[in-house]
Amino acid sequence: MIITSIKLPKDVFELTAIPFVQFIPSFTTWYNEVVVGWPETSKALFNSTIIGLGSAALAVFIGSIAGYAITRFQFQRWKNIDIITWFFSLRILPPISLVIPYYALMRSLNLLDTQLSVILIHSVFFLPYAVLVTFSAFKAIPPEVEEAALVDGASRFQVFRMIALRMISPVLAAVFVLILAFSWNEYLVAFILTSKNAIPMTVHIGATTTTIGVSFDLASVRQILAFTPTFIMALFIQKHIAHGLTLGAVRG
Amino acid sequence: MISIRRFQRGTFFLLPSVIFVLAITLFPLGYALYTSFTNAKFGSPDVEIVGVRNYAYPLYDYRFYNSISVTILFSTIAPLVQIWFGVALALLMMREFKYRNVVRALLLFPMFTSEIAVALMGAVLFYEGGGGPTNGILKLLGLPEVGWRSNPPTAFWTLILVDTWQWTPFAYIITLAGLQALPKDMVEAALVDGASKLRIFRHITLPFLAPVLLTIYFFRLVDTLRLFEIPFTMFGGGGPGITTETLTVYIYKTAFRGFFFGEAAAQSFIFLIIVLAVTILLVRKVRRFYA
């Protein structure tokens, strides 16, 4: 199975080669995609980057605040574990059930085909990761340091920002990258909400499917362009992946 | 904890996420619920409330039942296969060998590929005309060619195969994390007592991994239930015929091919109820990890 992944670049050049590995390498498709089609491809890469960075930043920003709240405060009306379950349940929600209302919502807000619309939806979809992973990271740091700072007159938010966040910064970075990669790879929502100006790389790949079939050559080049960054990102956060993917349930 | 008396401050911290999430999930859910009781159609201005009609339609639609059975069958088999391979891979990767770190890193590759790319890659690999690589290899070996994507029973298994290729690494990396936490002295003690490797795996490793495996199953279940890109793109909208038409594909077709938004919304809710019913039992167990 790993072999097939290594074989992929070869599909790019020759699909009709029999039997598959025998082919004449040619960079025509690469040329078509990277030079001729560059305005569109670069735009898609740019959109993917903006959407990925935007949703990761938004999710990590508000998610870490919430994660901190569940760790350090005891809530009365709803118990902390209920709040956790509620965030967790967002991970279960199937996107297909929500895409129609999202389409209607973004149309009425005049946000269709903008990067912002996709950012908003993605950041909610991936918010559980930010909340729960930071939650389990905050839980691991001893509260004494923070208490000392509180006694010295620091506000809760200062403690959060200056002490707690700094102590979990590696985890924070890992979650950020994870969400960035997820958002980069997400297709359905982006496909429904964008049509021309804001299409990210996944939709650009999907666009090789036409009524007369799939342009596999173009698709392969785009796939390589699309997965290289996520794969590199994944390498950087290797240590945290197991922890992150299970929303902090399994320690890496 | 010091924080009990400062409970309002905590609410203040929690508020941004809660408001944000409610705005982006609750409103659409409410809207979808409303739509599901109307005859809304794309581009049609007059929307009437038609009651529960949209919920009754699917009950008379064999394609709906088909999509449910495809989805449930797929979500039952695929995670189990992936856990099986994942555990095997993780055990293999626990051994010391040259370039282990490189192999470990490469194993992550499929998981971080977008599903749409995997779908198109699968379409290339299992291409059945001249030059399709998988059939090409089979031909070289003198084996009969297989209708990977065109033969109805095979297509379903191809779907499982592709999903397994992509998500075995998920099962693997989490099992690996679990294995690394396995207390070594227990295994050593068992070895001293003369236990065989198989018995150690069966009586020490496996019980120790059980909660981890359950977590993997849970996440894979949730994700296989919602799988969309591969049956939709690789199998041309759930083909051949409707063999790989999962519920997600079926709903998508109702909404964006037929443009029956009302019906699609009703189907979405039935789907949501199925997903909740299936996962609610598991959530309790997984939730224990956070307590």
Q: Quick one: how many beta strands of chain B?
A: 0
Architecture of chain A, according to CATH? Orthogonal Bundle
Q: Low-confidence runs of chain B (pLDDT<50, min 5 residues)?
A: 1-7
Helicity level of chain A = over 70%
Report the end-to-end length of chain A measured between terminal Cα atoms: 25 Å
As a percent range, the share of helical residues of chain B equals 55-70%
Helix and strand run of chain A: HHHHHHHHHHHHEEHH
Q: Radius of gyration of chain A, rounded?
A: 22 Å
Quick structural summary:
The complex is a heterodimer of chains A (252) and B (291). Chain A is mainly alpha-helical and 252 residues long.
Task: Provide an overview of this structure.
The complex is a heterodimer of chains A (252) and B (291). Chain A is an all-alpha fold. In chain A, 71% of the residues lie in helices and 2% in strands. Chain A contains 14 helices and 2 strands. Chain A has helices spanning 2-13, 28-36, 38-72, 80-90, 96-108, 115-125, 127-140, 144-151, 156-167, 169-185, 188-193, 201-206, 216-236, 241-245; strands at residues 209-210, 213-214. In chain A, strands 1-2 form a two-stranded antiparallel ribbon. In chain A, helix 1 (2-13) crosses helix 13 (216-236) and helix 3 (38-72) crosses helix 7 (127-140). The longest helix of chain A has 35 residues, at 38-72. The radius of gyration of chain B is 24 Å and the shape is globular. Chain B has 291 residues and is mainly α. Chain B has 12 helices and no strands. Chain B has a single domain (36-290), classed as MetI-like fold (Orthogonal Bundle). Chains A and B meet through helix 1, helix 3, helix 4, helix 5 and helix 6 of A and helix 1, helix 4, helix 5, helix 6 and helix 7 of B.
